[in-house]
């Protein structure tokens, strides 16, 4: 049974990825700062398919220690999905200094440490492994939340750099969703931005967390073994680029 790490596992894309991965036969290691959400996952799945952790990826000690601690119990892990992220949907002028530090840590710095610690251990096996970073269309075309857009643009840059850094054994790709319905973030996006996303989409089937999760599982699968350093959009054709 292949093992898969999913951060931000308690809700939204992360929760959907956990569910679909277990359905597909993976053993999932899920982590989130939402303790109640993690407990809900533990109630839904047995220990033979899910290992759940409460972990706050805004904490430097957590982001530096999370992967090393996992490898005290696991010999090898097939893939890492860096999904945990923060979106405030507000002007850069409204950010406090603490919020700036937090979003930079969760959305970018955590990915740096989790990715390098995972790749360092898995490259020793000289076997195919995969990292998927969750970016956003906001990282490609901008965002009303400048800090969110900036961090997601940086995630895309990190993805491309780490595809070089971790080759030839660890593939690194980004999945870049547009407007995702049925998530906590959806309601925090200003209405005019939601309308703009809808206007741009040329496919009209609303993007749901499960749809993004299906793409994530495809990206880590052997079917995508020749793909690395790429940004895979899940956006209903919005913002052709």
Automatic annotation (TrEMBL):
<dbReference type="GO" id="GO:0016616">
    <property type="term" value="F:oxidoreductase activity, acting on the CH-OH group of donors, NAD or NADP as acceptor"/>
</dbReference>
<dbReference type="InterPro" id="IPR002347">
    <property type="entry name" value="SDR_fam"/>
</dbReference>
<protein>
    <submittedName>
        <fullName>3-oxoacyl-[acyl-carrier protein] reductase</fullName>
    </submittedName>
</protein>
<dbReference type="InterPro" id="IPR036291">
    <property type="entry name" value="NAD(P)-bd_dom_sf"/>
</dbReference>
<dbReference type="Pfam" id="PF13561">
    <property type="entry name" value="adh_short_C2"/>
</dbReference>
<dbReference type="GO" id="GO:0048038">
    <property type="term" value="F:quinone binding"/>
</dbReference>
<keyword id="KW-0560">Oxidoreductase</keyword>
<comment type="similarity">
    <text>Belongs to the short-chain dehydrogenases/reductases (SDR) family.</text>
</comment>
<dbReference type="GO" id="GO:0006633">
    <property type="term" value="P:fatty acid biosynthetic process"/>
</dbReference>
